[in-house]
Design goal:
Length: 171
């Protein structure tokens, strides 16, 4: 028996090998490589620490829109059912948008009933990014934002600009 005093093992804990190469984990590694090699404009994402099943991502607000200049943080939580089931995608940044709930959850068809295993992380983040500028006010997650988007675009855009400015300082 070996006793080590005064030294701490700082090597990261890796899951046992049988947990490393499930189909979902292999697919997520492929998604990650693709995202690194050919990242879509205004999007970045990576697994958190040593957990391929939990990702942090950033979406930049598209140019020449009220979202321009914003840096919005999200998390993606995958299960072993990926890619047959979508991940749970959530904004960490505070948002004001017709299709984003107060808790950051996103009302987006490809994350629910229109999911397909052909979508990868890049496609998910690209879809979320385009949702920012192209909301669906008929399926509101935030009824105030949906109403404002439809009835008072100027005030809606002002509120979006506030969220953009907060995204620069918020953690």
């Amino acid at each position: 028996m070996e006793v080590v005093i005064g030294k701490v093992n700082l090597a990261p804990e890796l899951p046992p090998p049988h947990r490393m190469s499930t189909p979902s984990r292999k697919r997520l590694m492929r998604d990650f490589k693709r995202l690194q090699q050919d990242p879509p404009a205004g999007i970045s994402g990576a697994p958190q620490d040593n957990n391929i099943m939990f990702w942090n991502a950033v979406i930049f607000g598209p140019d020449d829109t009220p979202w321009d200049g914003g840096t919005f943080k999200l998390t993606l939580q995958f299960t072993e059912d990926y890619p047959n089931k979508p991940p749970t995608v959530r904004f960490v940044s505070r948002m004001f948008h017709p299709n984003i709930y107060a808790d950051g959850s996103i009302c987006l068809d490809i994350l629910q009933n229109q999911w397909s295993p052909i979508y990868d992380v890049a496609a998910i983040l690209t879809s979320v990014q385009s949702l920012l500028c192209d909301p669906n006010p008929n399926s509101p997650a935030n009824s105030e934002a949906a109403r404002m988007f439809s009835e008072n675009k100027r005030e809606y855009n002002r509120r979006v600009r506030e969220v953009v400015e907060q995204s620069w300082t918020a953690d």
